């Protein structure tokens, strides 16, 4: 497939981020599948804590972030696991978005943990995306024990690297899939309207 644009959102603010390394692997695989890619590094955005009484236009770089996500054919969300969930920078970024950015958009999920397999971070991101009526790729990628997963910015385990890269290939493959019907909870998600 050609003319697919895949955007990766890095939910880690660390300089030496394992999440960013893994997300770059996903985007590299998407480029190999003829997609154009873009990394949204949340360190570069001014995003105040979400306040529903404040318009997105008055919330730092929230409009610019939403615009870049709207232009994507597929979005990859990458996050470290913090306290059993995904990161607060990513949560804030998602709070400034809504149906206009995610409805009927293919979304892939990547979670990274310093310890055990980050299942709950993946589950929580999947729940948010389904509430926004995104089409979430069934294949998800997780990097556990991240301190030993990389050496000099490269994966140590080729099988793990392949699993992460597969997410990028699936993002291209399913970028234009016919989406599922709206999720049952989306009609209750009034926070996603008009943001």
UniProtKB/TrEMBL annotation:
Pfam families per UniProt: FMN_red
Domain NADPH-dependent FMN reductase-like: from-to ranges: 5-147
GO terms of molecular function: FMN binding; oxidoreductase activity
Cofactor: [4Fe-4S] cluster
Superkingdom of this protein's organism: Archaea
GO cellular component: cytosol
Gene3D superfamilies per the UniProt record, alphabetical: 3.40.50.360
Similarity annotation: Belongs to the SsuE family. Isf subfamily.
PANTHER family attached to this UniProt entry: CHROMATE REDUCTASE, NAD(P)H-DEPENDENT FMN REDUCTASE LOT6
Name the UniProt record assigns to this protein: FMN reductase
Lineage start: Archaea, Methanobacteriati, Methanobacteriota, Stenosarchaea group, Halobacteria
């Amino acid at each position: 497939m050609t003319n697919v644009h895949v955007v990766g959102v890095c939910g880690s603010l660390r300089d030496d981020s394992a999440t960013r390394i893994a997300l770059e692997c996903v985007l590299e695989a998407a480029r190999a599948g003829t997609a154009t890619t873009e990394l949204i590094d949340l360190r570069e955005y001014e995003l105040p804590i979400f306040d529903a009484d404040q318009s997105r236009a008055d919330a730092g770089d929230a409009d610019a972030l939403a615009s870049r996500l709207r232009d994507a054919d597929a979005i990859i969300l990458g996050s470290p696991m913090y306290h059993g969930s995904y990161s607060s920078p990513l949560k804030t970024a998602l709070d400034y978005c809504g149906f206009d950015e995610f409805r009927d958009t293919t979304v892939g999920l990547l979670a990274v943990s310093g310890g055990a397999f980050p299942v709950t971070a993946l589950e929580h991101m999947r729940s948010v995306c389904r509430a926004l009526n995104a089409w979430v790729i069934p294949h998800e990628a997780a990097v556990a024990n991240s301190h030993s997963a990389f050496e000099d910015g490269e994966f140590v385990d080729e099988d793990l690297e392949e699993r992460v890269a597969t997410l990028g290939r699936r993002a291209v493959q399913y970028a234009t899939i016919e989406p599922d019907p709206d999720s049952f909870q989306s009609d209750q998600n009034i926070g996603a309207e008009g943001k």
